[in-house]
Amino acid sequence: MAEGATGLLAGIERVGMDRRRGGFSRHGFDYAEMELREWFSEQADRRGLDVRPDRNGNLWAWWGPPGPNAIVTGSHLDSVPGGGAFDGPLGVASALAAVDLLRARDHVPRRPLAVVVFAEEEGGRFGVPCLGSRLLTGGIVPKDAARLMDGNGMTLAEAMSGAGLDPQRIGRDGEALRHIGCFVELHVEQGRGLVELDAPVGLATSILAHGRWRLTFFGEGNHAGATPMSDRRDPLVPAARTVLAARRIGESVPGARATVGRLSPNPGGTNVISSSADLWLDARAADDAATRAVVEQVTAAAKDAAADEGCELLVVEESYGGPVTFDEGLRRTLSATLGDVPALPTGAGHDAGILAAEVPTAMLFVRNPTGVSHAPAEHAEPADCEAGARALATVLGHLTST
Ligand code: GLV
Ligand code: MN
Ligand code: MN
Ligand code: MN
Q: Of 62, 290, 299, 374, which residue is 20 to 30 A from 40 by alpha carbon distance?
């Protein structure tokens, strides 16, 4: 089994290809993600790892019997709609490749080692990012999670049942958490930090505070031809003004990011004035106060725009996570083990950010020459991927030798 991280990724390069958008669309418990779970289970089996799902739909592969103080690594296999090949799968493939490297060195772990695949990290299907790790840590109320609905009206509970899981049993899993001594996630970098530092691999220091808000504008559905321009309550008009406000307000708060990546007119017909429109705001900043300030200003602008058009506005917070600083002690250990690797912050969210509230957590980043992520142009050179897998193997070897 000498395929390395790149060879493993090549084995799944056709799963969930999105011919319409480009890139990949792989979402929690959909056909593509289930195929990838199957692939992961087979790969883990071939390595003699013991694969078991947890109550929340995350998949664990154990080297050694599950037990306390395990060193856990892994990432996710789902993507954003039309995403790149590396965000998520690189961390899973590198974890398997690291197991191979450790075996080739005759390493015998003195603590259990596990590779985990978290469910629906991107929130591309049910709207809440890091859903599997949030459920595991109790970061979302189980009955609220069970009711989350995808774009086709299927609930998370139904999707989980379809995947052979019992939705009645989702929620904080103290037993699984007690097994985790520390968690190390490898991820493609989502920016050009490592390119500028001329380094193939780096360590993460922190994650921005971030959340998602749904703004629904209610207007009056009507006929595009028969309704005079003066007689409309078109919810897309305040929605469009809110997109512009998000850009302006995001630019005005230092270090903040405000994005409208999804806007959905209802019912959505070319010759139909919409009756309502959903707009999702993704807001991030260095701390809670700055993030809240962005959201407050954008929603105030949305409210004014709605009033001007005679529309109503409803705002719902769909998810939120405060800023994360990764464990300094673990980062120092990784730094000492790896030698000269730079450390850098990120604006992207990760399961490691959710787990950081519970256990010492660290992240390794692999250089991305395009700096692009959440898009098909996301990239990592094979040599850098293998450097990442070797770095992960070194770290896991060190952490499991005491
Ligand atoms: C997930 O990758 C996010 O940062 O939104
Ligand atoms: Mn992502
Ligand atoms: Mn990711
Ligand atoms: Mn992410």
A: 374
Round to whole Å and give the CA distance between 258 and 254. 11
Is 323 in contact with 206 (CB distance < 8 Å)?
A: yes
- Please name which of 219, 228, 328, 215 lies closest in space to residue 278, comparing C-alpha atoms: 215
- Select from 26, 134, 281, 374 the residue to mutate for testing ligand 1; criterion: most ligand atoms less than 8 Å from CB: 374
Nearest atom, ligand 1, residue 374 CA: 2
Following DSSP, what letter does each residue of 119-151 receive, concatenated? S-SS-TTTS-TTHHHHHHHT-S-HHHHHH-B-T
**ipTM metric:** 0.92
- Give, to the nearest 10 degrees, the angle between helix 89-104 and helix 382-399: 60
Assigned token pair, 332:
């120092």
Per the CB < 8 A criterion, the answer to whether 349 and 321 are in contact is yes
Residue matched to tokens 């069970």 = 146
Phi/psi of residue 115, each to 5°? -110, 125
Complete domains list, the chain, with CATH: 4-208+323-399 (3.40.630.10), 209-321 (3.30.70.360)
- Dist CA 325 CA 322 (whole Å): 10
Ligand 4 is a single-atom ion; what residues have CB below 5 A from it?
A: 349-350
CA–CA dist 365, 372 (Å, integer): 14
Name the one residue in this structure whose structure tokens are 């450790």.
Answer: 102
pLDDT digits (tens, 9 = 90+) for 255-294: 999 999 999 999 999 999 999 999 999 999 999 999 999 9
Tens of pLDDT, residue by residue over 72-120, are: 999 999 999 999 999 999 999 999 999 999 999 999 999 999 999 999 9
CA-only gyration radius of the chain, Å: 22
Instruction: Tell me the whole-structure pTM to 2 decimals.
Output: 0.97
Q: Which residue reads 């260095």 in tokens?
A: 286
Do the bridges between strand 113-118 and strand 59-63 make them parallel or antiparallel, or are there none, so unpaired? antiparallel
> Ligand 1 atom closest to Cα of 130?
1
Give me the DSSP letters along 349-375: --HHHHHTTTS-EEEEEE--TT---SS
Q: How many CB atoms lie within 10 A of CB 297?
A: 19
